[in-house]
Design a protein that fits this description.
Largest sheet: 5 strands, parallel
Number of helices: 31
Helix content: 40-55%
Radius of gyration: 37 Å
Structural class: mainly alpha
Number of strands: 9
Mean pLDDT: 77
């Protein structure tokens, strides 16, 4: 039997399916809502009983200029709660007054009226909640005296948020707002003026009458004329605010009221209170603080110190930030390069204090995945930023897509910081950041002042070992994708050839008492990390300087000369001459304390009076030559590099700390006659017979071997030629002699 479906049946079927899908979609949206209402607002029941109010409605009852707009944006954008800022800012003053007065006329602590007629303002508020789905309310008139208490009666499950700030600073911000918005708009409207007088206090009438004596000619300039009138208004407002805050404390129970400071997002304890009060998951805590800090859209909302902390200012003197783009200064360096000391001096020079969302045990590496307290942010950063974060096979030489990199800085932009360092970025990152317009510089410490490095978790030894092992495991195709990739690949292959020859030697007694073969790999990781950074930086004119050029300078002027010679005192790097001077001054002050400059430095210099940067470097050099076998290996690799890799002479000079020009050259020491005999280095260091390759063949470079073979072949050919010529001459002479004898 064949069953047929009529068109109405099909329409009904598809309609049901569509409704089910729509319900599923809306349900999934609710799941994503961190503050979603768990209880629906049921329709009004029959019999005239009052309907149940929604559970999770939040009223921000602090006066304006306490981040009301920013908080509204936070709930809208990140907590998925609907908020309309200043929705009732032009409500009829009679309606608002009748709603507030209802608390004294109809309310008793033990009874509520369920059959009374709603006030007009209450009906409008209910409609905003029920039909528009709004759950967060702020600004005028919600900080009117008596309003919070009345709201608690009508919405017993509601929560209340009060953000307080310094009174003097607060009133200055309020006056600027009055001049910009109230003087030209609300003071000219009788209803709006009356509503604001009830909310702000009786001084508002005086302001409207005398605003020409207070405000500047252009309200956008935010200039306030301080005089006796503003002092009187401030006193009236302060007394009004005292009474209002007292009424809030008496009316709203502490379980329903969150009282926090304006800078709550900069304090971990305050941020946790915010998270706990609104029932947010802990993992969203730091991300929430970063996002809120980004939402401060008006500078005068923030204290001067916090404004410097969260936003770029002219202290950086950076062209890219002056154009409105967020392009923070980035220092590219490596582990155990005195980077904490250098970055600390830079942060102080730039008035940078941002550190939200970073683990306490980490230095201020704001985009390092391993330093993020938020797992979400760590995973996002790890797509582009190399680190030891949760990786079994660490990849230090990979690239990433432009979209992934933009996601990193979009997330980081929530903090709006001015400077960070990173110890794992390679030349590709440097080139990409340069193309984005970031001011940059590279700073490093010479290997003899770095090794032996710490092998603790996250220490320099572990990181540089990862640089080397990751490089030799990266496919040739991926290496070639990097800037200067072809040269990097050739140099890597030669270094691996040298390293393999060392490993395959039978006699390893020469490594006794040293960091051994593992130490050589760490040194190679340091060399390749900075070889790549310096090579790319020089090709882009990004400043590069060594820590020693600053720490070992004899005077402040000498350090400044070295810094300026590197090109760092420009808008494309550290900044103006004044910023560089502040940086050098901070560095010279901070370097006198034996902390955070190198591993175990406090054990070496238990007596602080014996400490100096010179003594530290001498101690490091002594341990480098006594406890590592890095010097002959790096000498061999750099010598080959100078002769076979374009521009390697300049890069090697920079890496060794020699004074060089700023342009790249193609001068090889071999062509200048300044070659160190590589075999002699190995003969002196590794074995009486030299470094032997598998099969007993004496070590030599491929190029040298090919050259020697060519000379041998040529000599043999020439020798054969002369031998044949000699034989021919012999037989010719013999024949001539025979002819003479016959004659």
């Amino acid at each position: 039997m064949t069953r047929t479906f009529s068109m109405p049946s099909l329409k009904k079927f598809f309609l049901v399916v569509a409704l089910v899908l729509a319900k599923t979609a809306f349900a999934s949206n609710e799941d994503e809502n961190l503050l979603s209402n768990k209880t629906r607002w049921p329709p009004k029941e029959r019999g005239g009983e009052q309907e149940q109010k929604p559970r999770f409605v939040t009223f921000m009852i602090s006066p304006g200029r306490t981040s009301t707009r920013s908080m509204c944006l936070l709930f809208n954008k990140y907590l998925h709660q609907r908020c309309a800022h200043n929705l009732f800012g032009e409500a009829r003053v009679e309606d608002v007054e009748s709603f507030v007065e209802g608390i004294t006329q109809n309310y008793h602590p033990t009874t509520t009226t369920t059959t009374r007629k709603k006030a007009r303002f209450e009906s409008a508020l209910d409609e905003a909640i029920e039909r528009k789905g709004l759950t967060f309310f702020t600004d005028v008139p919600f900080f009117m005296p008596g309003m919070p208490c009345r709201l608690l009666v009508e919405y017993p499950e509601a929560r209340f948020l009060y953000v307080h700030r310094d009174r003097m600073e607060h009133f200055d911000s309020v006056l600027r707002m009055h001049c910009k918005w109230d003087a030209p708009i609300h003071c000219l409207n009788a209803n709006n003026k009356a509503l604001r007088e009830l909310s702000w206090g009786s001084y508002f009438q005086t302001f409207c009458d005398e605003h020409s004596k207070i405000c500047g000619e252009n309200p956008d300039d935010k200039v306030i004329k301080k005089n006796n009138l503003t002092s009187l208004m401030s006193s009236i407002w302060s007394a009004h605010l005292d009474e209002y805050e007292q009424s809030v404390r008496e009316c709203i129970p502490t379980s329903k009221l969150l009282n926090i400071s304006l800078g709550w997002y900069n304090e971990t304890s305050e941020t946790k209170r915010f998270q706990s009060f609104f029932g947010l998951p802990e993992e969203n805590n730091d991300s929430l603080a970063l996002r809120f800090s980004r939402l401060h859209i008006n500078d005068d909302l923030m204290m001067p110190g916090r404004r410097q902390r969260m936003f770029n200012n002219n202290n950086n003197n950076n062209e890219s930030t002056s154009r409105g783009k967020w392009r923070p200064l980035i220092m590219l360096t490596g582990p155990e390069q005195s980077s904490t000391l250098v970055s600390g001096a830079i942060r102080k020079a730039l008035n940078e204090t941002f550190e939200v969302g970073i683990k306490k045990i980490c230095p201020k590496e704001l985009i390092n995945p391993a330093c993020q307290t938020s797992n979400h942010r760590a995973e996002l950063y790890a797509k582009c930023i190399p680190s030891l974060y949760r990786q079994k096979a660490v990849q230090m030489w990979n690239t990433c897509s432009s979209s992934d990199l933009e996601n990193v800085f979009h997330e980081a932009n929530l903090g709006r910081w001015k400077f960070t360092k990173d110890t794992h970025l390679n030349g590709w990152h440097l080139k990409t950041l340069h193309e984005r317009g970031h001011p940059l510089f590279v700073v490093f410490r010479k290997p003899e002042h770095t090794f032996p490095a710490s092998r603790r978790r996250g220490g320099g030894g572990q990181n540089y070992f990862a640089f080397w092992r990751s490089l030799i495991s990266t496919t040739p195709e991926n290496v070639r994708m990097l800037p200067a990739g072809a040269d990097l690949l050739r140099l890597r292959n030669y270094a691996k050839y040298v390293f393999d020859a060392i490993v395959k030697q039978r006699d390893h007694h020469i490594f006794a008492g040293t960091t051994g073969i593992r130490g050589i790999q760490e040194c190679l990781g340091h060399f390749f990390h900075f070889w790549h950074l310096i090579t790319v930086a020089k090709s882009l004119n990004v400043p590069v300087f060594s820590v020693e050029s600053l720490l070992l300078s004899n005077s402040r002027d000498e350090a400044l000369i070295a810094l300026k010679a590197s090109g760092a005192c420009t808008s494309s790097s550290i900044g103006s001459a004044e910023t560089c001077e502040a940086f050098v001054d901070n560095l010279r002050e901070m370097q006198s304390v034996p902390t955070l400059m190198h591993v175990n430095v406090t054990e070496i210099f238990k007596d602080a009076s014996s400490f100096s940067s010179v003594s530290l470097m001498l101690d490091r050099e002594k341990k480098y030559y006594e406890r590592t076998k890095c010097a002959p290996v790096l000498s061999t690799v750099t010598s080959w590099c100078r002769d076979n890799v374009r521009n390697c002479a300049t890069v090697s000079d920079v890496y060794s700390g020699a004074t060089v020009g700023t342009t790249l050259d193609y001068l090889s020491p071999l062509k200048q006659g300044g070659v160190t005999n590589i075999d002699e280095i190995f003969n002196r260091t590794f074995s009486p017979r030299g470094l032997l390759l598998p099969g007993g063949e004496e070590k030599r470079t491929t190029e040298a071997k090919r050259l020697q073979d060519s000379v041998v072949y040529l000599a043999a050919l020439v020798g054969s030629f002369f031998a044949l010529a000699g034989v021919a001459r012999f037989f010719r002479s013999r024949k001539s002699l025979e002819v003479v004898q016959v004659i």
